[in-house]
Design a protein that fits this description.
Structural class: mainly alpha
Strand content: under 5%
Number of strands: 0
Number of domains: 1
Number of helices: 2
């Protein structure tokens, strides 16, 4: 069984046509990193590499627990 996820590209999907024509999607998690050819079959490899990057880039937005 396949899973499908809806990607909203801007409010009301205003960027959907541009993304479709350009063969990309926008997710916003890593705006400064091109993930082309960086998505391994094993999601754990991706997480191992990019979770620290995400946490560093979003440290101000994360809730701190004491």
């Amino acid at each position: 069984m396949k899973n499908y996820y809806r990607i909203m590209l801007g409010r009301g999907s205003i960027y959907a046509e541009e993304a479709h024509e350009g063969n990309y999607i926008g997710a916003g998690w890593f705006p400064d990193i091109d993930l082309t050819n960086k998505l391994p079959d094993n999601w754990r490899e991706f997480n191992r590499k990019y979770i620290p990057v995400y946490l560093e880039q979003n440290s101000d937005n994360l809730q701190k627990s004491y």
